[in-house]
Amino acid sequence: MGYTIAQKIIKNHLVCGEMVVGKEIGLKIDQTLTQDATGTMAYLQFEAMGIDRVKTELSVAYIDHNTLQAGFENADDHRYIQTVTKKHGIRFSRPGNGICHQVHLERFSKPGKTLIGSDSHTPTAGGIGMLGMGAGGLDVAVAMGGGTYYITMPKMIRVNLVGKLSDYVGAKDVILEVLRMLSVKGGVGAIVEYGGEGVKTLSVPQRATITNMGAELGATTSIFPSDEVTKAFLEAEGRGEDYIELSSDEDAVFDAVYTVDLSALKPLAACPHSPDNVKAVSELSGMKINQVCIGSCTNSSMQDMLTVASMLKGKTVHPDVSLSISPGSKQVYTMLAECGALADLINAGARILECACGPCIGMGFSPQSAGVSLRTFNRNFLARSGTADAQVYLVSPETAAASAIAGVFTDPTTLGVAPKVEMPTTFKINDNLIEMPVSADKMDEVTVERGPNIKPIPVGKAPDENLSCELILKVGDDITTDHIMPAGTKVLPYRSNVPKLSEFCFTVCDKDFPERAKKKGGGVILGGVNYGQGSSREHAALVPLYLGIKAVVAKSFARIHVANLINFGIVPMTLKNPDDYDKFNEGDALEIQGFANAVKGENEATLVNKTNGATATLVLTLSARQREMLTAGGCLNYTKNK
Ligand code: MIC
Ligand code: SF4
Q1: Which residues contact 88 (CB under 8 A, 6 or more apart)?
Q2: Is the separation of the CB atoms in 136 and 535 below 8 Å?
Q3: How large is the average pLDDT for residues 505-513?
Q4: Pairing of strands 149-152, 221-223
Q5: Is the CB of 274 under 6 A from ligand 2?
Q6: Residue closest by Cα to atom 10 of ligand 1
Q7: Which of 106, 129, 324, 377 makes the best surface tag, with the fewest CB within 10 Å?
Q8: Which residue among 35, 120, 124, 296 is best mutated to probe the pocket of ligand 2, counting the most ligand atoms within 8 A of its Cβ?
Q9: Which ligand has an atom closest to residue 99 CA?
Q10: DSSP SS3 for 604
Q11: Which ligand does the CA of 326 lie closest to?
Q12: Do residues 220 and 120 touch, judged by C-beta distance below 8 A?
């Protein structure tokens, strides 16, 4: 039996475990990346491990999220990351160099290699044939120290692409179509692999748009073959030597196969408040809009920017619309300036932002009250934009540009023939904003600078034999990490300050939650399906830990979040019978009988509702390693014990 692309890379990097779907496997990680909003924690944890130098082939720290510096906190955190990375052998991508995934794709991604990043959109690198996975900061710290990265062996989903995209239909429409077909849960436990004749019609940045937003499927990662198009991209980046050819074997076996006919695709939009709530743009045509934001790690490549510039050239953004544009990297930004396209954008009335995440993570540019915002981003979760009642739609750069001019939702295919965009055959290479670390013999000369915003990381405890506590919060399906631990300008500066961060925990769902949890000393959270989808932020585990949460009971969990819960000693348990969810209400007194034993080795425990007498069976599907970790009260204790 042949192998898929992902299986080939996994096989080459397998440290332990069997490549059997559903079983835990350990992988050797070649490269890591961090960004600043998760990076401080990752490096604090790396320091706590006491390892002098990173052991990966390449590790890069990016500053791209917390770039709005409304106080000293973010700047202090940047300085900490700059100095700690210099000491320990990690490259530092300075603020102004661009969004981690875009820069990594341009300068460092390599087909056939493994990458983990403390950011859920690390699968962007799949566009170049790399196995890129999002992980919690602690897992990234372990990998930097040469440790194994553990995942559950995924099943393989194949998406066959046939035909060729029409004018004004973009790569974004491809992934929106996949999201429409599979939903935000459709990729859980799977790797999505693209193949078929249509692949060669897509450039590497277009492929990266698709793998980037594969994160929204809940997939472990997404990946494209590495072919002549990949080779040309690497050569244009001056990295032709990094090319290897990669494709799946003829007889590779997939657990499910889907087909997307690129020629038949029409512009699509993900409607509020979920990336899989997809409709045709033609159905939304004419709806008045207030804001358009173009950029983010999904759509900020040179190709995206030139497409938008060609559509805006000589036009004016509608007076009722505010348009922001954030190019993805310094490379893109410089080239836009040099070819004159930047002038076309500015002239049309676009408000040009720095090359960073910006509005995507609520760092500025929040829409007006109840505003309709069209964004080329990947997430439109409730309140993520910074405006609680905003209506955010996720669209392609083509739809965004057409609508920005018209002032209403506009299907760009109604505009006729698209202007021809000439892509440069070589990119402008200048890595002057990537700082190299000092050599090992000079590391003692570097002083790590720590600002007053950096507070100690909470550490978990071993589980009680029987857990008696309150059902402190009951939430529904598809709870995202943006619900658990919101981001945005007011909250992000405290990513290294868990006590302060705790004041915002779950406030999107229940503004009294932090106070209540503190007063009652924590308890258990009950969730629905796909609990913890979205970001890799381990703060969505660390902060609940700080607030005394001992266990989360849910119908099912998202991959990265469940790993983060275990890393910090919060026990994730699923309801054997999902209907039992209705037997429990917020405020009920609970007992989880046999809690510690269940963690140690039993697969089940009984949840008793002491308020109404109901019971439910809880299931723990954990590997032996995870059980040991939880028994020790989390990964840091577990590693120390070892
Ligand atoms: C996101 O897009 O949600 C983020 C912000 O990039 C997160 C990381 C974080 O919360 O810092 C992610 O995707 O993992
Ligand atoms: Fe940054 Fe947005 Fe991409 Fe997250 S999704 S890495 S916030 S651009």
Answers
A1: 43, 46, 47, 51, 52, 53, 54, 144, 437, 443
A2: no
A3: 97
A4: unpaired
A5: no
A6: 537
A7: 324
A8: 296
A9: 2
A10: strand
A11: 2
A12: no
Report the distance separating Cα 569 and Cα 461, nearest Å.
7
Binning pLDDT at 50, 70 and 90, where does residue 181 land?
A: very high
Confidence of residue 640 (pLDDT cuts 50, 70, 90): confident
Nearest CA to ligand 1 atom 2: 535
Q: Whose CA is nearest to atom 12 of ligand 1?
A: 535
Place of tokens 């961060």: 501
Pocket of ligand 1 (CB under 6 A): 37-38, 65, 119-121, 134, 361, 379, 487, 534-537
Pairing mode, if any, of strands 604-609 and 549-554? unpaired
Q: Which two tokens stand for residue 502?
A: 């705790």
Residue type, 599: V
Given a contact cutoff of 8 angstroms between Cβ atoms, the answer to whether 294 and 304 are in contact is yes
Q: What is the pTM of this model?
A: 0.97
pLDDT at 642: 77
On the CB side of 1, CA atoms within 13 Å amount to 5
Q: What is the pLDDT of residues 228-269, one digit of tens each?
A: 999 999 999 999 999 999 999 999 999 999 999 999 999 999
| Token code pair at residue 603 | 């697969």
Tokens read off for 448: 């790590």
Q: Which two tokens stand for residue 352?
A: 């040009």
**Ligand showing the shortest atom-to-Cα distance for residue 101:** 2
37 lines ligand 2 (CB under 6 A): no
Any residues with CB less than 8 A from the CB of 442 and at least 6 apart, and which? none
Best of 216, 537, 543 for a ligand 1 pocket test (most atoms within 8 Å of beta carbon): 537
The model's confidence at residue 1, banded by pLDDT at 50, 70 and 90, is: confident
Closest C-alpha among 81, 48, 54, 58 to residue 495: 81
258-to-162, 179, 541 alpha-carbon distances in Å: 11, 12, 35
Q: What is the mean pLDDT of residues 527-547?
A: 97
Q: Is pLDDT at 633 greater than 80 in this prediction?
A: yes
pLDDT band of residue 217 (cuts 50, 70, 90) is very high
User: To test ligand 1's pocket by mutation, which of 36, 41, 65 has the most ligand atoms within 8 angstroms of CB?
Assistant: 65
Residues designated catalytic: 64-65, 119, 379, 535, 537
Q: Dmax over Cα atoms in the chain, in whole Å?
A: 71
Q: Which DSSP string corresponds to 267-308?
A: -EEEPTT-TT-EEEHHHHTT-B--EEEE-TTTS-SHHHHHHH
pLDDT, one tens digit per residue, over 331-357 is 999 999 999 999 999 999 999 999 999
